[in-house]
Amino acid sequence: MATNGRHACAAVAGLAWLCCQPVHAQDAQELAKKLANPVAAMISVPLQANDDRRYGPTRDGHRFTLNVQPVVPVTLNPDWTLISRTILPVISQHELTPGAGHQHGIGDVTQSFFLSPSRPGANGIVWGAGPAFLLPTGSESALSARQWGAGPTGVVLRQHGPWTYGALANHIWSFAGHDDRPNVSATFLQPFLSYTTKDAWTFGINTESSYDWKQEQWSVPVNFTASKLIKFGRQPVSIGGGLRYWADSPPGGPRDWGVRLSVTFLFAR
Description:
Blueprint: H1 2-19, H2 25-35, E1 43-55, E2 61-68, E3 71-77, E4 80-94, E5 102-106, E6 109-117, E7 125-135, E8 147-160, E9 163-177, E10 185-196, E11 201-207, E12 209-212, E13 217-232, E14 235-248, E15 256-267
Antiparallel strand pairs: 1-2, 1-15, 2-4, 3-4, 4-5, 4-6, 6-7, 7-8, 8-9, 9-10, 10-11, 10-12, 11-13, 12-13, 13-14, 14-15
């Protein structure tokens, strides 16, 4: 099912390329730059598919994850915006450990809220801060920590010409959940750098590193991506893809190279 999901995403992306129409260059570049900003005042719905392999001691396991990540800004007043950012993973995995079999379903939701100034500050600095929550929504035990969690989150970035660079971070502690499951204390770090061309191509590199303070283990995928803002009918859409390299992961975690595909829908406020 993981392979089929990957092929389905590739087919959808290919169809969009064939049917798309270009967006006006200047508008497209500005929209593409906004997409590089996690706290941009713009409604977007990214669908991000990741295929990772070589799990387990025998390296036969693999996982396909489709992250549904709606971003919804709410204007509080002329000076401040509240941005809701949700990550809902839909997972298909096989033999992550010997004898584990297949699991398919929904994973745990990470819900973040960022309070951000409506306009960039000095030197074009953009920032946002607020709470992040872990919700035990997993449809199967193997897809969920079975813990409720909360903690702080923040992002800071600068957009200078075609460049966007900055970092997003959070830390989540569990405060309730199943007694037979480990407590959660995890830090997430996402430094990012991207370059957007005048014809709305964006080339980026980031890491989505996490550190498990209970197990004292890092997970460090490094993502190399390229995306293009196009118009699918009247709908602005960003379509992209790339490779991810696992620089570090826990024992039994993924190794070597993975694949990322993404489709992001943009909506007027």
